[in-house]
Amino acid sequence: MKITRRNFIKNSFLLGSSLLLSPLSLHAIPPKKEPWIPAYEKLEKEGKLAQRVKQAYAMFENCQLCPRRCGVNRKKGEKGFCRAPMKLVIFSASPHFGEEVSLVGQNGSGTIFFSNCNLRCIFCQNWPISHEGRGKECQDEELADMMIKLQKIGCHNINLVTPTHVMPNILNATRIAYSKGLHIPLVYNTSGYECLEILKILDGIVDIYMPDMKYMDSNKAAKYSAGASDYPDVTKKAIIEMNRQVGELQIDKKGIAFRGVIIRHLVMPNRVAGTEKFVKWVAQALPKSTYVNIMPQYRVEYKAYEYPEIARGITVQEFLEAMDWAKKYGLTNLDPNSVAVRDFYLQRESDRVPFKGA
Ligand code: SF4
User: Fold this and answer.
1) How far apart are CA 234 and CA 332, in angstroms?
2) How confident is the model at residue 175, as a pLDDT?
């Protein structure tokens, strides 16, 4: 029986969630001998974190927090492209077990979803949160309490999803949470559409950067991400800066990530994401051992069905060619779930075993 696209997508999910991968199977730099402390702790002890919070908050008056550079005064209630107020809006805060294995560990990644978004892709899987801004307004102190609660229940990190437009609130909340005992890594889980000067403010605060690299072509970026034609150039520069700050992914002896960069790249139908160009760029601009997650789980969401080019899931062959390109350009640290999905389909194709999915 042929492997259909439907079966491929379904089984990518099933396989991804059921793999019993040990975090220790990851290729990552082993920890140094001195005890680890979070980046923000060092900065606070040097007396510099308060100044960063102040510097970040001042940006609300003429918002340049992201490359949209709207220049609105969010302190006065004006809203820019992201439609975000100055106050935090949070959709959820809970342990998440669907992230990369070194973030999830045994107890989950402490994931906080911020409402609204500065990129607003038309295929967004979280569109009620990012496009419609569903969520609850919160004070920075409440965010700090959420961080502490996630740490208390054993989460291995604080995973800040779509943080760009609320970066000042996050810094303030981190400082408050640190005073209450926060001591786990901050994961900056971003679309990658970040300004260099903003990343400089985050230098010494964020432990793990997890940017997307969605497209390599400016026309595609403009078409599918609300006119953001500068996305490829801006994001390439941003990732290089992130790598300068925190370097390659490091894990502790239990296989839990505590510092470094994880790059995510979602394979899209009809080569829309420019995967070959992406892996080639990583191989040339960054260490070949940079942790890269080539993701197979694209699905037709939100308004993607209006664009024929992306109005379907990816095929087995589209995923396999993406993984082949990564190998061809010499990337050595691919996400183990993606590697397992690739191996699963290669094995099935070579065995020609009938697939018995629903
Ligand atoms: S964070 Fe929002 S208001 Fe500020 S520049 Fe970006 S899109 Fe505009």
Assistant:
1) 25
2) 98
Cβ atoms of 268 and 292 within 8 Å: the answer is: no
Tell whether the model's pLDDT for residue 187 goes beyond 60. yes
Question: In whole angstroms, how far apart are CA 238 and each of 120, 149, 198, 261, 285?
Answer: 18, 31, 10, 11, 12
Is the CB of 65 within 6 Å of ligand 1?
Answer: yes
Say if ligand 1 is within 6 A of residue 69 CB. Answer: yes
Torsion from C-alpha of 164, 169, 172, 178, nearest 10 degrees: -70
Cβ atoms of 67 and 230 closer than 8 Å: yes
User: How far apart are the CA of 180 and the centre of ligand 1, in A?
Assistant: 30
For ligand 1, whether the C-beta of 162 sits within 6 Å is: no
pLDDT at 106 over 80: yes
Q: What is the pLDDT of residues 329-341, one digit of tens each?
A: 999 999 999 999 9
Ranking 3-17, 125-139, 155-169 by mean pLDDT, the lowest is: 3-17
